[in-house]
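Issue: ligand-bound run for S-adenosylmethionine - logging full I/O for the record.

Environment: standard queue, default settings, no custom constraints.

Inputs:
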Amino acid sequence: MFKTIKKLKIRNSKFILGNSLNELKDLETSSVDMIFCDPPYFLQLSKELRRPDMTVVKGVEENWDKFSSYAEYDEFTSLWLKECKRILKQDGTIWLIGTYHNIYRLGFHLQNLNFWILNDIIWNKVNPLPNFKGTRFTNAHEIIIWATKSKESKYTFNYHTMKKMNNNKQMRSDWSLKVCQGKERLKNEFKKTLHSTQKPEQLLERIVLASTRPGDLILDPFFGTGTTGAVCKKLGRNFIGIEKNSLYMKAAKQRIMQVEPIDTSAIEEVSNKNLLKKVPFSDLLKKGLIQPGERIFNSKKNIEATILPNGNLKFKKREGSIHKIGAYVQNKAACNGWTYWYVKSNKKMVSINDHRNLLRTENSSKE
Ligand SMILES: C[S@@+](CC[C@H](N)C(=O)[O-])C[C@H]1O[C@@H](n2cnc3c(N)ncnc32)[C@H](O)[C@@H]1O
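Outputs:
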């Protein structure tokens, strides 16, 4: 059905057959909203593992997981991670998944590159492979690190979507999900498991819905069977998948072609994505809704500050964002400046939140 051509563009998504160390270099700086990385684990398996009935356990024995030393794995990791940092948008996030074999090394390089870790998620495997020899605890989880490009990034976190998906309770950092199995697990021509580490779609669905918006662009530099691509297509996101193994890439394309997009409005935070978009306070100045030098007040009008041309506020000698100054004047640790501050418009007090909503409506009607 598909030719294994090197680069195939599908609408706004892209399949790239090649080595990520080379291919990432061709991607535009600050161009993707989210990156999901499921890199080689460097498992260092030495012996064949058998079940009690002597059948062989399919582990990760492929060449893609082989490195001569930690030094080689570290060099590989720092090279692709550095490129990912360049390609990620300022407010984008990156997810790295691994096991105890590699996750600490991934975390080390991530922090060295000044990414900012938001969470580490424990993927608790509900149905893990037992420890057949009984020599250690059953290895029943993987760790997923979620990080922003920098400490200052204004990243997307769809808190309410996550809550909704978790029976209206705040989503925690321990996720109990099954490993990929049944019809979802791709098979080769001999009806054997095609890829030893195919991730479950449910895991990627949670990641994509938590940290992206419809229409966002997601990069996966270790695409494998294309789980990220399949989930992106289903949830209305675009993707770039890079995979060096042509068999996996071919299977990924076939799989993704069959995916039908679903209507996510019932689960996404707000059906109109523009309502979710961040509006910087300085946009109110740009649009002429407020003026530099204008006074801004709390609802009781007993606190007032001055709006500066850069979108900050000045209160006495202190300068800062609407949130920072709002918190300062109330002697609180935090404040939502959008709901705290008001400006005068036609002799009436107008919440700056109303101005923000006006801009959001304007933006949405343009699309
Ligand atoms: C852990 S698997 C990813 C599995 C994938 N998440 C899935 O659900 O199918 C890692 C994948 O990275 C690919 N890979 C390893 N090194 C690579 C490289 N330098 N460039 C591109 N792909 C690479 C391997 O062929 C393998 O398919």
